[in-house]
Predict the structure.
Amino acid sequence: MYSPSERKQYFNLSKQWLKTPAERADYDSLVETLQFHEWAYYVASEAIIGDQEYDMLYKQLESIETGMEDIRPDSPTQRVSNDLKGDSKTVEHLIPMLSLGNSYNAEDLQDFHRQVLKNAFLDEGSAVQYSVEPKFDGGSVALVYENDFLIRAATRGNGQRGEEMTANAKAMSSIPLKALFSKYGIYKAELRGESIIAKSDFESINAIRLEREEDVFANPRNAATGGLRTKDANETKFRRIQTFVFQLGYAVDRDGNNMLPSLGAHFKTIELLTSLGFKTPGEASKLCKDIDEAARFCANWEAKRDDYGYEIDGMVVKVDSFELQEKIGFTQHHPKWAIAYKFKAKQATTKLLGVEYQVGKIGSITPVAKLDPVALAGVTVSNVSLHNADFISERDLRIGDTVVVERAGDVIPYIVKALDEMRDGSEQPITFLKQCPSCKTQLEREEGEAAWRCVNVKCEAQILQKLIFHVSKDAMDIDGFGKSYVEKFYELGWITDLADVYNLPYDQIAELEGFGEKSVAKLRTAINKAKQNPIQRLLHSLTIHHLGKKAGKLLAEEVEHVLEFKSWTLEDFEGIKDIGPVLARNMVAFFSNPDNVTLLEKMESLGVNLHQTEEDKPLQVSADAPLVGKTILFTGTLQTMGRKEAQEKAEKAGAKNISAVSSKLNILVAGEKAGSKLKKAEALGTVEIMTEQEFVDLIA
Ligand code: IVH
């Protein structure tokens, strides 16, 4: 429907308006651009801008149209979005299902609050109670109960009429077939809610589909909305769709009198619905005393959205009192007493401008994409790792491409895909480097490995990375010794190998700009402290390929002095449980190289500890320790100790900590608010479940 050049034009216009908002003169192009995005999202299912970017453009359109007389009837603002397909039975909602206005930050919420005060004829500074709950990212449904029975369910449709889906609703266990509304004098009610699939269910559903060689679902939202409208209610059940109820929109008694006023307020009504057996947001919702508290609650949830079991794309802030709601009223499109607080976008599109290559501490070459800087979930992203050559070829990435970038929670931003339709032929393929960008040595790739590597041990870029890692928190943990110090000292020729770290010219450092006696003294103390590190840290800090923290500990348990490894054979290393043949080979290679031995000797002469410390020694558990041979797992919040401390205690008592509930688990210690793990363990029936106190008594 749209030609490649049109797509491109709309994309570029959008980007331009996201930088400098559209004006009245842009009205027609803005309408057409948004029409295009609607089509791309709903019809072609290939959105080329993020949700938040779309919302921002939509807002610009709304603001241009405010007060305008000749609003185009085909403007996207003139319709409530539509999920109706031609061939299904539709029903009229008892009252229209509206949409929500959007806000993006605390300031927007303050604006919303000012409008609320104005529309409710309240004085400036009055406090209003707001009920805040998650904005579930699924498909909305309307449920009608009459005489306590579920008699009808429908999708939102165009807001006035929805698609009838009663059989599917009946297949969802979270929707009660019967609910005692009559207890409250209610004869007929319409409830609104959102149907959604839990993140964990989504994963297992996709796993099953994969096994059956069916296509996997792209995301829980599509799987849920599709599952609402399928003709086969068994499929709805299979997808484990759950429905959260978030509004009682309509409630009348036998004589048709409106019962909502007698219920008083939203939060209380949701509690009532909970007591009738409906699934409601529970802990994820809160009755806030004013807009400031509401804003804090929204921000808290934004920070923990990834830990929540369901996909949510924001929070919804609602004036709690029904009386106030009624005073405030609606626009054509949304209630003026509620607003969505949209979380920052997780996806955005931008241009891939070029690729740079970084040399890692063991010579692995990492390609890094240079992007046209783009705002994503609260940060500006301009570089993202492309990992390795396969990552680039699998996605067919080219320089000049428009790419979709995603950042979810703590995950480092990454490129999801390139948008083929945005190509104009000028894009350049990415040809992976053949030589090390630092020392020009020919790169090599071992069979089965993803990374190309520079094998030159004298490669400067590699040495610098080794030094940076050696002093880092993960390795020798030299407090305050950051990357910039390493680079500076390396540049000045003061550190060329790991031993030099322990032989710094402190007097000269004190004279450097930005350093003083104080900071030098601090650095010196930190370095002296690191000299006493257990050898497991030292071993890890040497950047021997495949020698991680865990292997460092296993190896440290075996020797009284690090240089004993000089005489170890391949078989000796492989004889240690959990040390694999590759690391065994790397250890032999490292310790048979005289340069490395000299380096360690030099470090020792500078005071670095090479002897096994108490911390390095294997944990001594006597055969009659109370938990010998048992596996254990802690869940929920513990009252008298932290999780880590509990695990250490369990280990000392002979137990092995494991991380999942399975038939292998012997003991589950359930703290407060223990959730799914406890349920699973109970269901298994083979796990001994104990309280924190019982655990403490047992190991005492
Ligand atoms: S209230 C008149 N509350 O978001 C009240 N909506 O963009 C309008 N949604 O169509 C809705 N979670 O499907 C409300 N806690 C929540 C919600 C929620 C998700 C959806 C709903 C609505 C859309 C509006």
